[in-house]
Structures are given as structure tokens and as C-alpha cells.
Design a protein that fits this description.
This protein is an alpha/beta fold. The protein contains 20 helices and 15 strands. It has a domain of 229 residues: Rossmann fold (3-Layer(aba) Sandwich), CATH 3.40.50.1100. Helix 5 packs across helix 10. It is globular. Keywords: Lyase, Pyridoxal phosphate. Pfam families: PALP (PF00291), Thr_synth_N (PF14821).
């Protein structure tokens, strides 16, 4: 399997190449040259697999055995999931009135991003040890990505990680999961900016090809294809849990509702669709509704500043993975994608061509939930089921309560409610805090401040250069 840029201006590369990349050299995002379509017999076989087995099968389709043998790949994935709190790694809760919730938050940081980042961390270590290299990871986070990325590499001698988080936009628990990490290879920056603003210095550093190459820069945000790859398994597992495989075609349709911020998880669902899985996808958003407007009206534009909501990890107005979704629904039209994205990043406003808009609205549905609706949904689910939703899961469940299901339906749960104590309190729901979370509040913290008006990219350059001096030789 080879990978190409969504903008068509970079040559193809293998999985190792995209793993250690940020953006493609032409500014695009990497995608597989071809997406395999699974036949009936394969889907029937996969229907009996556990979640880890599905991840293994998917990874063998997208990672050449000449890079990682099947045996080694399976071992890496087993190691990735060894710290998860549930024996099945993920779990489906079946509640009243057909409400199925796939809990994806049993990893070290109580967030779904642990699933893909635990695997990605193992893949990184495999290649770094093999090549004798050191890399520096740059990550911007709106809440959960930073702590998951830190957990995947903390204490590793051949990886340093710099995480930028927007001060005041994350919950206390999310922030503490990052700032209480004391390993020398972890560098946390508290910024006076929102989730979209912290992406700018990261893009600037990746755009400096010489600097990026010399210092082995890479990303663990969902621009990294490895993140998307592992997340495809969510959809196969959800489907097989909601519609056990029949003996003959046609297979039943399952609707999957996805709490959506940056669009990485939505991209994974679109790829699962392209692979032949009979699913309908619903992108559920909060008041930062750019993806909702894009699907409904073809209006891919930023209306203004990011709106702070109770579903804070989804407070994003520039979802870069929409570039991948445009590429998928345009039939891999890289020239169109390049034109759309260059216009968007210049003007912050794009009206999709009618044909692309038609395909997008036929392939995806969307919904929007206000803060009031999110809190009401959390309370309603608690009253009906004595089941505690995180605010992001509630965005998806709000859709379930609004619209009767025509097919079996599954709502993805990206995080545990224990990370959102203040929001749970606003919904007037009792919350028992685990000892692990309580202990965070008593730990020492460490971070570097990035103040508004400072040149954040320059501050990061100095830190990365200091990191490089500690490692000999510097990667070139």
C-alpha cells in the first residue's frame, strides 16, 4: 500500500513515510492510493472478530508486511491495548429505546484517542529502534489528543513531544493529565489562544521543510494517517455489534452517530463506507457547526471566533480532516481539493461546487446541539437509564432523541464523563470521582506559557533546537 497527498503535488510513500510525516510536502494530507473493498465472505468472517482482531486485520491491509511482519504487527497491537481497563478494550452499552452506545474510553486517559495513539506509539517505537532515530512530535490539542499522545510516548528516549493546549478551553482534568507529566521528554505549552489558533505555529514549522527534516518533526494529531487507520475499526465493530452478519445479501444498514470536531473520526467512518460496510454516518456537532453547514449547505466557512461550549474538545472551526473527506467524495480529485483548501486557508470561506455538495449530502447526514440541548440530553439519559454521558457523547445522543431510528443505530462515546466534572454538575447529575482522577489534583504541574502577541513558532523553534542538542547525532 502506497500513500499520496490529497493535493496531488507529492510523490507516493509507504506507511513508514506517512507515519513520520506531518502534512504532505505540498500542504495536503496523506491518503491511501487505493481503498480496498471487502467482499461478502471477508465481512462475514470479520463479523466474529473482537475489536483488537479487527484492528489487526485492518492494519494488515494498509501496512505492507515488508515493513512490519504480520506477527510483529499483531504483537505491537496487543501491547498497545495491554493498559486498557476493559477486557474487550471497547464496550457496547445497550440502553432503552434502541440507544446503543459504543464506549471507546477505556484507555489510560479515558478518551477514544487512546485507541489510535496507543497503536501509533507502538508503530513509532518499532521503526525508531530499527532505524536508530530520534523524533520530535508536535501536537495541538483541544482537550484529549494531547494527553493521549503524551501517554503513548512518555519516558521514551528516542521521542520528545511538544504539546500546545489552549488555556481555559480544556477541562481541569484534561489540563492536569498533561501538565502533571514530569518525564523529561514531555514539553507542555499553555497558550493564550483557541484550538484553531494553536494549529498555526505547528503548520508554520512543518512548512519549513529544512527545519522539519533536520529535527525529525512529526505529528500525532489526526493529520497522521496512522490515527485514521486504527479508528476505522470503530465502525466495523459497531456495525457487527448492532447487526450480526446474516447468511445472505443484502446486509442490513446501521446508522452510526459521530461526535465531530476536527473530523478525523468522521474520515475513518467514510473510509469504512468506501470499504463496503453498509453504514450511514451522522456528523453530530456543537455550536461550532462548520461541518454541519458544509454537509447541509456546502458552506465551508468560518463565521468568526471559536465558540466555547460544554463539549469543549469539539470547539473547532477549522476541521482540517474535511480535506480528506472532500478528496474521498470528489473521487480523489486532487486539483479540486487543492483549489478548495487553498481558498479556504486564504479567505476562511468556500462554497462547495454543486456536484461535490450533492455527493457529500447523499453520503453523510449531520446534526447540531446547543449547550442547553447537550445538558438536557445528559439529564434525560441519566433519568431514563441511570447512564452517565460525557458532553461529547451527548451531542450524538441528542440526535438519537430528536430523530426516530429507521435502522439499528449506534452512538459513539469518545470520552468518559469523569473528565467533565463541571459539566456533569451543570446537568445536575451526581458524579463519583475515581481515586485516579482525584490524585491528579494533588500532583505538581509543569508547563511553559505562550502569551498572545508572542511569536509562538519562534518559541517552539528554540525549544526544539534545545532538544536536538541533547541528542547526538541530530536527525538528518
Amino acid at each position: 500500500m502506497r500513500y499520496i497527498s490529497t493535493r496531488g503535488g507529492a510523490g507516493s510513500t509507504d506507511f513508514e513515510g506517512v507515519l513520520f510525516s506531518g502534512y504532505a510536502p505540498d500542504g495536503g494530507l496523506f491518503m491511501p492510493e487505493t481503498i480496498p473493498v471487502l467482499d461478502f465472505a471477508t465481512l462475514q468472517t470479520w463479523s466474529t472478530f473482537s475489536y483488537p482482531e479487527l484492528v489487526k486485520q485492518l492494519c494488515t491491509l494498509f501496512i505492507s508486511p515488508t515493513l512490519i511482519s504480520k506477527t510483529e504487527l499483531n504483537d505491537l497491537i496487543d501491547q498497545a491495548f495491554s493498559r486498557f481497563k476493559h477486557q474487550d478494550v471497547v464496550h457496547m452499552s445497550r440502553l432503552k429505546e434502541g440507544l446503543n452506545i459504543l464506549e471507546l474510553w477505556y484507555g489510560p486517559t479515558y478518551a477514544f484517542k487512546d485507541l489510535s495513539l496507543s497503536c501509533t506509539g507502538q508503530f513509532l517505537q518499532y521503526f525508531l529502534k530499527k532505524r536508530g532515530k530520534h523524533v520530535t512530535v508536535l501536537v495541538g490539542t483541544s482537550g484529549d489528543t494531547g494527553s493521549s499522545a503524551i501517554e503513548s510516548v512518555r519516558g521514551q528516549k528516542n521521542v520528545d513531544i511538544c504539546v500546545l493546549l489552549p488555556q481555559g478551553f480544556c477541562t481541569q482534568v484534561q489540563e492536569l493529565q498533561m501538565t502533571t507529566v514530569m518525564e523529561d521528554n514531555v514539553h507542555v505549552f499553555l497558550t493564550e489562544g483557541n484550538a484553531d489558533e494553536i494549529d498555526e505555529p505547528i503548520k508554520e514549522l512543518f512548512a519549513d521543510e529544512d527545519f522539519s527534516r533536520r529535527h525529525g518533526l512529526m505529528s500525532l494529531n489526526s493529520i497522521n494517517w496512522s490515527r485514521i487507520l486504527v479508528q476505522i475499526a470503530h465502525y466495523f465493530y459497531a456495525y457487527f455489534q448492532c447487526a450480526p452478519a446474516p447468511d445472505a445479501l443484502p446486509w442490513p444498514v446501521v446508522e452510526i452517530v459521530i461526535p465531530t470536531g476536527g473530523g478525523g473520526n468522521l474520515t475513518a467512518g467514510c473510509i469504512a463506507q468506501k470499504m463496503g460496510l453498509p453504514i450511514k454516518l451522522v456528523a453530530a456537532v456543537n455550536d461550532n457547526d462548520i461541518i454541519h453547514r458544509t454537509i447541509q449547505q456546502g458552506d465551508f466557512s468560518v463565521p468568526g471566533a471559536v465558540t466555547s461550549t460544554v463539549a469543549s474538545a469539539m470547539d473547532i472551526q477549522e476541521p482540517y480532516n474535511m480535506e480528506r473527506i472532500f478528496w474521498l467524495f470528489s473521487g480523489s480529485d486532487s486539483s479540486l481539493v487543492k483549489s478548495l483548501m487553498e481558498q479556504f486557508y486564504t479567505t476562511k470561506k468556500v462554497k462547495l461546487p454543486a456536484e461535490l455538495q450533492k455527493k457529500l449530502s447523499e453520503g453523510l447526514k449531520s446534526s447540531k446541539a446547543s449547550d442547553e440541548e447537550i445538558l438536557q440530553t445528559m439529564r434525560c439519559c441519566w433519568d431514563d437509564n441511570h447512564y452517565l454521558l460525557c458532553p461529547h457523547t451527548a451531542v450524538a445522543v441528542c440526535y438519537h432523541y430528536k430523530y426516530p431510528a429507521c435502522h439499528p443505530r449506534c452512538c459513539l462515546a469518545p470520552a468518559s464523563a469523569v473528565k467533565f466534572e463541571d459539566v456533569v454538575s451543570k446537568a445536575r447529575i451526581p458524579l463519583e470521582i475515581s481515586s485516579e482522577i482525584s490524585m491528579l489534583k494533588n500532583k505538581k504541574t509543569r508547563s511553559c506559557a505562550l502569551k498572545r502577541g508572542e511569536d509562538w513558532a519562534e518559541v517552539l523553534r528554540h525549544r526544539i533546537e534545545a532538544i536536538a542538542k541533547q541528542h547526538n547525532p541530530i536527525i538528518s
